[in-house]
Amino acid sequence: MGDDADLNKERLELVLEAAGLDLWENDLVSGQVTHKATKTFLELGFTEDEIVSGVQDIFGLFHPGDLDMVRQAVADHVAGVTAQYRAEFRLRSKAGEWVWFANYGRIMDRSSDTPGKRLIGVTFNIHDRKQKEDEIAHINRQLTEQNKLLQELNAALELLAANDSLTGLANRRTLMEMGANECKRTERFDHTLSLMVVDIDLFKAVNDAWGHLAGDRMICAVAQACAARKRSGVDIVARFGGEEFVIVLPETDGVSALRVAEALRQEVAALRVSVNDEGVSVSVTVSIGVATLHKGSGLSFEELVNRADKALYRAKETGRNAVYCADVQHGCVPVVHMLIDPGEGRNGALLT
Ligand SMILES: Nc1nc2c(ncn2[C@@H]2O[C@H](COP(=O)(O)OP(=O)(O)OP(=O)(O)O)[C@@H](O)[C@H]2O)c(=O)[nH]1
């Protein structure tokens, strides 16, 4: 029998050693360590003589941030809440460094009057694993931050790719894409679509007289006036080229578009644009060409822009600061009707 016990003890020691486990036993009732976790203490840099023999003394080696969790894990197991006692924690080495260990244990006398007299378990070093977990967590945090940065960069790039950098309006590429979609909607749902091409009059003279910066200010001022007309989520306001803008007005017939264009023309004509920092400001006017698309016209968005452009040229030819309309329904018949306020002579001309 004694031989068997010795053999079993040897076998157990071999298994524990091979698995890197350190056996311990605590008497929770007396608070005494009844089998010391020698290997663990040696790993922590203590000598065998320095190994403490009170459970509270061992708790004194625990990291303050882990202690409550460990106590709770023991209490839960003693109370029968958990089938095993498990905990991961840091112990202070003799040199003062924190080393990660794990405990796995069980009350062996649960059915006795004083359960907790024999809490037996093993301790094993998990420092490398924890360090790797920390490294992975650190890398994950970095990746998350980098992803966030990439998303922000992508959003900024998308904005740059879609918008004009001077005015912030949609750029020509965005206009052509969105405009083509609006044309498809017109065909499919029989919605009337109007479009204006807005061009600053005699803009070169502003550049020549006051410099390009002043020209840029004028472009921005007119861009703002165009954007102010925009029905949010409906209209498209774009910078088409240098001093030329396009406004797409879905669900808008020719007469309504002419009214919008005329209001914009008047609003711009009332503007004063500051051309230097000395307080000098100049007036500005625009010529506007309007074209309207109806279902069945078969026109592409580009063709619609060209029509509005032709009306714009007419406005320029007749003296500028004017609104002209190309009636798409009737093709390119060169007939001019005065549509709005014929008394003024310049505005609201219908060009077919
Ligand atoms: N400041 C500035 N000027 C620009 C920009 N893009 C184009 N231009 C200038 O705009 C001027 C356009 O001149 P024109 O096409 O002759 O037109 P205009 O002087 O407005 O004459 P009309 O259109 O006939 O009334 C050119 O001198 C371009 O160099 C820009 O982004 N900023």
Automatic annotation (TrEMBL):
Catalyzed reactions per annotation: 2 GTP = 3',3'-c-di-GMP + 2 diphosphate
GO cellular component, one term: plasma membrane
Annotated keywords: Coiled coil
Top enzyme class: transferase
Coiled coil location: 129-163
InterPro entries referenced in this protein's UniProt entry, alphabetically: Diguanylate_Cyclase (IPR050469), GGDEF_dom (IPR000160), Nucleotide_cyclase (IPR029787), PAS (IPR000014), PAS-like_dom_sf (IPR035965), PAS_fold_3 (IPR013655), Rev_trsase/Diguanyl_cyclase (IPR043128)
EC number: 2.7.7.65
Domain GGDEF, first and last residues per copy: 191-328
Alphabetical list of CDD domains matching this protein: GGDEF, PAS
Pfam families associated with the record: GGDEF, PAS_3
Gene Ontology molecular function, alphabetical: diguanylate cyclase activity
Keyword Coiled coil included in the entry's annotation: yes
Any one biological process term the GO annotation gives: negative regulation of bacterial-type flagellum-dependent cell motility
Protein name: diguanylate cyclase
Organism: Simplicispira hankyongi
